[in-house]
Amino acid sequence: MPTDGATNHEVRGKTPHHTQTTFRSDDGLKLFSQSWVPQGEVRAVLALVHGIGEHSGRYSNLVDSISHSGFAVAAFDHRGHGRSPGERGHINSWKEYREDARAFLDYVRVRFPDRPVFLYGHSLGSLIVLDYVLAYPRGLAGLIVSGTALQPVGVAKQYLVALARVLSRLLPAFAVSLGIDPSTLSRDAAVVQAYRDDPLVHSRVTMRWGTESLAAIERVRSRAAEISLPLLVLHGEADRINSVEGGTELYQAVSSPDKKLCIYPGGSHEPHNDLDHSTVSRDIVHWLSAK
């Protein structure tokens, strides 16, 4: 999708160049996007899809390492997140996430023609990108997933699932707390405090979001063997939001002949923001450089 030039703003300074803009999704919604471009030749582009309740501005550790290694990074805020419009934590259908991702990648390919594009998804973003490649398997050089959301902790109890399905039909926009303890995101106290203080973070999701997300989990789990792209799976061993077994399950299920699983001992939910984030970034750069 073409960018809306009226909202384009570029900030130039030291490497990388930081650009903020918007692009339109299929239903006309303008979604906030930003990119970081190194000086000189761009080796490839990492298209980043963030998690639930957060935004694209929380990946500075990853952006710094990737961009200083010759890779461009592009990211966007989901509808209902960060600086994008929409009801916080609500979707009418999972298709909205899928088509937003497609529109974002269309924009990325226009912005970076003839460059390989790798798709990166964290947590909710991992579910979005996995579902996306099942629907649109062509046009990507590889896939990276972090904090894989195939086995979320404590949300799939049968009575809660049944209640969510009823309320999703009757009160689809009824919102509840995510119940995320910020201390489970990272072992770095500064990261935890920054999350608590971040005005762009939200903590509520709706009944429709819940049932659509559960359906997406089951769809991806049942069809994971269809995924054959080069794949890098990253997961903190002590992740208390999405169980590490979800990352292992995905790694074992996909048919990708080129796949790698990195589990970080003692690691929390956000490997890119954890105490060993430099190791995580180095693993990502090495993997991208080998493609």
Tell me about this structure.
43% of the residues are buried. The protein has a single domain (5-289), classed as Alpha/Beta hydrolase fold, catalytic domain (Rossmann fold). A hairpin with a 5-residue loop joins strand 2 (17-24) and strand 3 (30-37). It is globular. The strands form 2 sheets. A 9-stranded mixed β-sheet has the order 1-2-3-5-4-6-7-10-11, sandwiched between helices. It is 34% helix and 20% strand. With 291 residues, the chain is of the alpha/beta class. Mean pLDDT is 91; it is low at 1-13.
CATH class, named: Alpha Beta
Q: Helix count, per DSSP?
A: 8
Distance between the termini: 27 Å
Compute the CA-based radius of gyration: 18 Å
Number of strands: 11
CATH superfamily: Alpha/Beta hydrolase fold, catalytic domain
Beta content comes to: 15-25%
List the strand order in the largest sheet: 1-2-3-5-4-6-7-10-11
- Mean pLDDT comes to 91
Biggest sheet details: 9 strands, mixed
CATH architecture: 3-Layer(aba) Sandwich
Secondary structure layout plus pairing:
Blueprint: E1 9-11, E2 17-24, E3 30-37, E4 45-49, H1 60-67, E5 72-76, H2 94-111, E6 117-122, H3 124-135, E7 142-146, H4 158-170, E8 175-177, H5 189-197, E9 204-206, H6 207-223, E10 231-236, H7 244-253, E11 259-264, H8 277-289
Parallel strand pairs: 4-5, 4-6, 6-7, 7-10, 10-11
Antiparallel strand pairs: 1-2, 2-3, 3-5, 8-9
Helix pairs in contact: 1-8, 2-3, 3-6, 4-6
